[in-house]
Hints:
A: alpha+beta; globular; B: 75% helix
Amino acid sequence: MVVRFWILALMLAGGLGAVGWAVRGARLPPADFTFFNESEIKSVDPALINGEPEGRIARALFEGLTRPRADNMLAEPGVAERWEISADGRMYTFHIRANARWSNGDPLDAHDFLYSIRRLLDPTTGAEYAYQAWYIVNARRYTHGAGGIAPGDPIEVELHAPVGTPDTVRGEILLGTLLRIEGENNGDDLSSRDRVFVVEVAGHERRFQAAERDDRLPEGIERCRQVLLDFREVGIRAIDDRTLEIRLENPTPYFLELLSFYPFSPVHRGCLERYGKRDWKKPENIVSNGAFRLHERRIRDRIRLVRSDTYWDRENVRLAVVDALSIEDRNTGVNLFLTDKCDWMTQTPPSVVRVLLAQRPPRNDINPALQLTTYFYLLNTTRPPLNDVRIRRALSMALDRDEITRVATAAGERPAFSLVPPGLPGYNQQPCLPRNPNEARRLLADAGYPGGVGCPKLELHYNTDQVHQSIAELARKQWQRELGITVTLRNEEWASAQQTQQQMTYMISRRSWIGDYLDPNTFLDLYLSGGQNNLTGFTSAEYDRLLADAAREPDKEKRLRMLEQAERILMDEMPIIPIYFYVSRNLVKPHVRGWYNTLQDNHQLRAIWIDRTVDPNDPRPNEFMGRKP
Amino acid sequence: MTAFVVRRVLGLVFTVWVVYTATFFLMYSVPGGPFSGERQLDPEIEANLKRAYNLDLPVYQQYFIQLNRALRGDLGPSYRLADFTVTEVLAQGLPISASLGILALAFAILLGMSAGIVSAVYRGSVADVLLMSAATLGIALPSFVIASLAILLFVFLIPLFPAAGWGTVRQLILPAVCLGTLYAAEIARITRTGMLDTFSQDYIRTARAKGLSEFVVVLRHALPGTLLPVVSFLGPATAGILTGSIVVEKIFAIPGLGWHFVQAALQRDFTLEMGLVLLYTMLLYTMNFLVDLSYALLDPRVELK
């Protein structure tokens, strides 16, 4: 009995002790500003991320040559205080501020950008957004590594770094000229590893093969980590410590905005090379250059940011401590917002938006704004009957987009009749044909299926999600009603759905696209023949030519006209059916200032401040309510 | 006793290996990989990424590489939470899930056993019917319904507790109660059945015949016998509750392990998923082992063979 008593007592004490231990230190002093940052982020490394939750953190921690203006996302001076652009629009010269500093106090100079952009382009970095930098001369060839070089090219051979050095340190670089490639790849273009590169290095002919440290190589072949274009061929150069020159392949009107995008952020070479590719991002190690520093990370709880005291524009940063909540459940986020534990709720669930928008008097913390994002259906143009343009048009004309945005989405989304969303200055969207069920039936009959008789069953595929499902059910109902065809639905969870689209084993599939920059090109270049994100089998030589010409065209007006012609082709051929344009779904407390609705739903933490004098019951709207969608 | 322990430890090693292997091949047979995204990767970059994580090798080779690393205690980097290793993720999440679980279990045992004993002693009374109806309801209602009701009641209508989060004891109470309800209901039913069973035993009749008070008969003589089925329920339940509840952790934004189970599978975070499965298997096995040991402690008639 005594033994049992002691065992029980021990268990109890152990249990309570464990709880106390786990809760200890879990309490943080409150932040000035707390926002809902959706899921736990993949990384804080600006070169290795591509999602919006990651972007919000990266934009706070790092800053590129330019930075986005808080109210409209246009580029304004960031680390570069000024720049010159050559007359042909292809040469940019940036002058870096004298007071640009890293968070450890080191000066930030042109060489830091050279290092960071090279790292972004390096194929072994694994940067998903490397292609954003391919506007720079030869950058694409550099990223393609061994696939981007041909005999006669100046190249660099990267040897393996000595065992034990951090994985961020490059091995010795040998510069030379590629003489020839032996053992051309045997159809499998992924493996550049079975090829031997014969290189002239300092007057000697040497043979290299990319291989791991422990791979066996035949006699006379040296092992290297990779072979790629000489980086000096890439159009980026540090003229001196404070001057950086970038040469572009084509005049790119949106290049300054692109540079404010986080992949172009500088990273601190010393920090990376000391701690290696995972540990440099730990709060105790990281060196950054943005308005905030990384203070603490709690997985699936929060990321705490504190104001940097070395940021060049620190006088204008008014939040001292910011919490980014990594919370999976959006309804939980809404609960936190409604109980004043969160000042900015992103991606509010549509069902909640609907309820909040219907409240009277109107709420002063919600104002959906039009986004640079399109929701559309892909049509597999290689599979009958969708290889017939009449069928594709009939499907689009039979669809009642108003009903979809009224019933299934209901946060003020706009029916879409073009791929490119509205709001891009100077560009006229090219609409597809409007809703016309009679004409749709006629087209279907023309194609050999009067009244839908004999038309193969169509399958509509989407990734598992409540909203996608409601929309798919509406589309099925409308198609069956107007055209008499049979439509089945198939849903897959997200990763499987991606694969289905990439392998084109679908007939009709849901997709959306968020514009990467404020230009129609970010949507239109998806449908280049063979483009990686085309996914529909659509090819058009005329379309490809128009986009290529537009890229080279220095006259901005002419360029936009060419892009309009390209979208005209797309909307006539209809490899996709646009459904609607997104609106943002932010909830913002009335005391938040410096928060603006923007087309890309990006918001600059450095510009935000809190006005505690605001009475929460004051019906007057906060700043972001000013611009209506 | 020693033979029993040795056999169980060998069993643990074998079980963990089987579960590890089965999970590994199941995961790798699902379409999509950790790097599939909406934007297709450049082939050169994708090849490099895959090579960095050995994903370019045949699956059986990857299996041996990972098994070898796991045996040396290295669970590798998480594919999707790229700034952390799997061990770091588990080390941050487990204490949180575990403390929530311990609170929930304490609540469940206290409430469940009291309700069960009262029901058994006053069998057929109004109290019995009410308690057992409540228990049935507790088992039948999914935890997201209980959690939503609790939030509606105690966060919005009567603002007693914070809506979500982790860090203070007040934030722990609602999730612990919601998590514990299901277990409390189960325990109440098991206790009641066990108690009624024990009441018909000879030794209880003896105790009563000796003229002991009903209080002593119930708590001193009947209760230990009743504990056996409760303890065997608690073993696996503890393993489950310690590694986190998917639903309760999600709704209350508790940064424990529960939601990692779902996310790791959906995002094809192979290494993290393997780490979680390993941890769960070992916990489950250990808890069952402890249950067997405690049988001997609770009931002198049980012999460990």
